[in-house]
Design goal:
It contains 14 helices and 10 strands. It is α+β, with helices and mostly antiparallel strands and 483 residues long. The structure holds protoporphyrin IX containing FE. Keywords: Heme, Hydrogen peroxide, Iron, Metal-binding, Oxidoreductase, Peroxidase.
Length: 483
């Protein structure tokens, strides 16, 4: 057995009894071990993620199964059979760190690829779309998912007030209240980039891509009743399920595909391909299978690895880049800013965030909790004459043509918020439609009549049967709903 020490390595003589003046006496300030133990304990908590606070992570690997070099020069995708280590964190969105895994919510699906050209983060969800198309609305939207400022209770009125005033939410609302809003566990759901990203090949041609991770465990969901029961029986059921499966050697896997759109198509495609509230119909851009992802190792320490993991959509590698999607552009700022606040300016040095496939050389120095030697005596400025690291000089991507006058353009003008929501409603079949409308009505009924009526009008616009079904469950007449 090893000897218990202080943080500075001195042996601790007694970890049961504090140093006191006499057996009943007050304690002495010179008991450094006691002071250190209490002081460190006081600092054990860091801010939880403002969204996606509850999560579970695992390590694994990604393997390329198809030659994709015609579309991207990314080194980790450069050959069939090539493997890249990954860390994946699943999460719920709105709840706090101790909230139930079974809550109705989208699920986060954040993958960190430790590539030889640096870390590539794909920070997606289990849904192919999102509620919004302008990042300016994200804090407002999240406030409606969190707690009421007066009561500290979850607030269906705020949620439906916002949804009914924001028709671009319709598609994602339809997914959220469907069976897919309560997955059976993290292993039994798909993942999506949701956003459009770009791939760039060696000839400097750009393609727009969307990623799809299809679960090989099969989609399984809880019914609304099962989810409510599960939240009481085992609030950590999805975390437990993932951990147990990996411990048992039953490694979960996903088939990875992309939809690929040549750059020029974006100008003429009938949808805005950078609108995060829309999918690209597979008939237009079919799935191209490119790889498989397997999770095969649990973290050894939840806080050190899963809690301190920092994912950012801005973390891309050569051959992969962004798109004009306004939501994505907003996210490119938000994540690293959150990490600096939540983990500190040197968060990249936390082992789970450190590149594994390549070294890091730059001129960043100092700051709180600098633990990597801080560049030693090497030059801390550039250019220099002493062999410091230099830029590649290779443009990371071809120029992107951008046109337009700067203005606050109405992101709702001329957008069809209903067609894809209606198509999804018609696709899922009668029984799933019934559950969807039951789930919606069960929540919407808790709001004032004017919000119910306003929201039902959106469902009507998506599909008359959708609107009528929700109206009926709310006890509204079709005339009321149609007004
Ligand atoms: C986490 C902001 C939209 C997926 C976060 C965090 C912030 C944030 C601040 C916490 C980061 C941290 O503390 O480490 C935003 C903003 C958005 C947005 C401003 C829109 C403008 C989205 C969308 C998706 C998404 C559209 C999915 C397609 C995630 C995931 C996490 C996360 C998966 C958790 C990452 C992890 O496991 O650590 N988001 N988000 N977010 N977000 Fe977003």
């Amino acid at each position: 057995m090893s000897t218990l020490t202080t943080s500075f390595g001195q042996p601790v003589p007694d970890n049961q009894n504090s140093l006191s003046a006499g057996p009943r006496g007050p304690l002495l300030l010179q008991d450094f071990h006691l002071i250190e133990k209490l002081a460190h304990f006081n600092r054990e908590r860091i801010p939880e993620r403002v969204v996606h606070a509850k999560g579970a992570g695992a390590y694994g690997s990604f393997r390329v199964t198809r030659d994709v070099t015609a579309w991207t020069k990314a080194a980790f995708l450069s050959g069939v059979g090539k493997e890249t280590p990954v860390f994946l964190r699943f999460s719920t969105v709105g709840g706090e760190k101790g909230s139930a895994d079974a809550d109705r919510d989208p699920r986060g699906f954040a993958v960190k690829f430790y590539t030889e050209e640096g870390n590539y983060d794909l920070v997606g969800n289990n849904t192919p779309v999102f509620f919004l198309r302008d990042p300016l609305k994200f804090p407002d939207f999240i406030h409606t998912q969190k707690r009421n400022p007066a009561t500290n209770l979850k607030d269906p009125v705020a949620m439906w007030d916002f949804f009914s005033l924001s028709p671009e939410t319709m598609h994602q609302v339809t997914i959220l209240f469907s069976d897919r809003g309560t997955p059976r566990g993290y292993r039994h759901m798909d993942g999506f980039s949701s956003h459009t990203f770009s791939w760039i090949n060696a000839a400097d041609e750009r393609f727009w891509v969307k990623y799809h991770f299809k679960t090989r465990q099969g989609i399984q969901n809880l019914t609304a009743e099962q989810a409510v029961a599960m939240a009481g029986i085992d609030p950590d059921h999805a975390t437990r399920d993932l951990h147990a499966a990996i411990e048992d050697g039953d490694f979960p896997a996903w088939t990875v595909s992309v939809q690929i759109m040549p750059e020029a198509d974006a100008e003429t495609y009938h949808l805005n391909p950078f609108d995060l509230t829309k999918v690209w119909p597979h008939g237009d851009y079919p799935l191209v299978e490119i790889g498989e992802l397997v999770l095969n190792r649990n973290p050894e320490n939840f806080f050190a690895e899963t809690e301190q993991a920092a994912f950012s959509p801005a973390s891309v590698v050569p051959g992969i880049s962004f798109s004009p999607d306004k939501m994505l552009q907003g996210r490119l700022f938000a994540y690293a800013d959150a990490h600096r606040y939540r983990l500190g300016g040197n968060y990249a040095q936390i082992p789970v965030n450190t590149p594994q496939g390549c070294p890091v050389h730059n001129y960043q120095r100092d700051g709180a909790m600098r633990v990597d030697g801080n560049g030693g005596g090497r030059p801390n400025y550039e250019p220099n004459s002493f062999g410091g690291p230099a830029q590649t000089g290779i443009p990371s991507e071809p120029p992107l043509r951008i046109t337009g006058d700067a203005a606050h353009y109405d992101h709702r003008a001329g957008n069809d918020d209903y067609a894809q929501a209606g198509a999804l409603f018609r696709l899922i079949g009668a029984e799933a439609q019934d559950r969807l409308m039951d789930n919606i009505a069960g929540s919407l009924i808790k709001t004032p009549l004017f919000i119910q009526e306003r929201q039902v009008r959106h469902f009507m616009a998506a599909d008359p049967a959708y609107g009528a079904g929700v109206a009926k469950r709310l006890g509204l007449t079709v005339a009321q709903a149609a007004e």
